[in-house]
């Protein structure tokens, strides 16, 4: 994790979630956000001002950055990518992250409770907008990350319903794997 006032920090995709928090937490770090939606990019860029660079972009086509990142954050993105696109995204992120640094992911996973109303509503919106979704188990996500030379350090539920999970992974180079 970069120290306040140093390092390069890339915030990847869905920048409406937290560029202001990142800028406050890591003062002096460079923050770069990517999102495929022009309206979200415009709003996030306005919130961040000159303190961050918010760009249009979508996985797996991750725009180049000036230097490898100390930290990459993906929030609520993986269920929009099919398996091939997600694997390529993980590979591209691996290429843009410093060795030994972390990728933090929050992922939506299929619910196990009886009446997941919010989850059903979200999927209804996706269907109406003809947006495909690809929900995966934690085990599947873990396997895909390991395939692309990440070590899964932690998985933790986000919230009480178990429909969101945090995965904290570290980049290793193939030569470093034991």
List keywords for this structure.
178 residues, Rossmann fold, seven-stranded mixed sheet, single chain, disordered N terminus, alpha/beta
Helices and strands in order:
Elements: E1 8-12, H1 19-25, E2 30-35, H2 38-48, E3 52-56, E4 69-75, H3 83-96, E5 97-108, H4 117-128, H5 138-147, E6 150-157, E7 164-171
Parallel strand pairs: 1-2, 1-4, 2-3, 4-5
Antiparallel strand pairs: 5-7, 6-7
What's the order of the H and E elements?
Answer: EHEHEEHEHHEE
The CATH superfamily appears as Vaccinia Virus protein VP39
The helix content, as a percent range, equals 25-40%
Number of helices: 5
Q: What is the β-strand count?
A: 7
Biggest sheet: strands, sense, closure? 7 strands, mixed
The fold-level CATH name is Rossmann fold
Tell me what you see in this structure.
The two termini are 23 Å apart. This protein is of the alpha/beta class and 178 residues long. It is globular. Strands 3-2-1-4-5-7-6 form a 7-stranded mixed β-sheet, with helices on both faces. The protein has helices at 19-25, 38-48, 83-96, 117-128, 138-147; strands at 8-12, 30-35, 52-56, 69-75, 97-108, 150-157, 164-171. The protein has a single domain (8-176), classed as 3-Layer(aba) Sandwich (Rossmann fold).
